[in-house]
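Incident review: delayed structure delivery

Summary: a single-chain prediction request sat in the queue longer than the usual turnaround. Root cause was a stuck worker, restarted by the on-call engineer. No data loss occurred. The affected request and its eventual output are reproduced below so the record is complete for anyone auditing the incident later.

Affected input:
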Amino acid sequence: MQTRKLGNSDLEITPIGFGSWAIGGTGYAFAWGPQDDQQSVEAIHKALDMGVNWIDTAAVYGLGHSEEVVARAVEGWSGARPYVFTKCGLVWDEHAEVNKVLRADSIRRECEASLRRLKTDAIDLYQIHWPTEPNDPDEDAEGWRTMAELQREGKVRWIGVSNWNVPQLRMAQEIAPVTSLQPPYSLIDDEVEREILPFCEANGIGTIVYSPMGSGLLTGGMTRERAASLPENDWRSRSDEFREPRLSRNLAIADALREIGQAHGRSAGEVAIAWTLRLPSVTGAIVGARSAEQVAGVMSGGDFRLSDDEIARIEALRGSE
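Output delivered after worker restart:
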């Protein structure tokens, strides 16, 4: 795969990175259900074998377990070491209740724990997962100042944020340069097009978008029956996007993507990923997978380019919603 420079960093990343949310397994509110660790390792190795050069995870995924699985996969990989990105700011207690905490001492504890779980001396990209809620600008600023200190100390190489809006990005930029933003972006969640992506492009902030396939809705493999049977320990069972009236609209979009992909021998998921990467303001897309088979079906989407006519067809579909 070709690579793109991420923001102000020296990281040259492939258009697609491996997303490690689902491989954290179950046991907390935003889990994807049970997951076999060996399948996760095989999925990561398959992605790396296909040319992907970065893995995105977070401390909260599986309450630390995803980072441990990523470390196991990287340790067992014989090729060039991939970049490993992780996140902080979501802290859990003994009851698996998760809270947003951006105080300096908390972020420092999180960083040390992630370094241990990932078995590394420095994190390639460290990101604040969410701003505080309800929004506390002082705590957000404290968190970002701490991130900059960790960078100066060499514990992390580059620093970014996830799910921050433009005012929050402006505040952060006044303290220390923001290497990247990680926002949601897909055909069913395109809000960032209006203000956030243009701001990042104008200010040299890289963007690595998550859920480009709508958390599985746009892969071509989701059906009405499968959505209805999602287990309670899969967060998607509580999402409005997987229920009517939105479900029918989302499945119709997936059907259209499947038709476009068939002309190229591509999956609906690859078309969905290619659509997010059509914008120069998008540096890369985080693509999750739970098995090597899933990886093989979507990870080539980074090298797939839609024609102007195909983009126009998809835009017409968006306009008809």
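Verification: The first helix runs from residue 37 to 49.
Action items: add queue-age alerting; document worker restart procedure.
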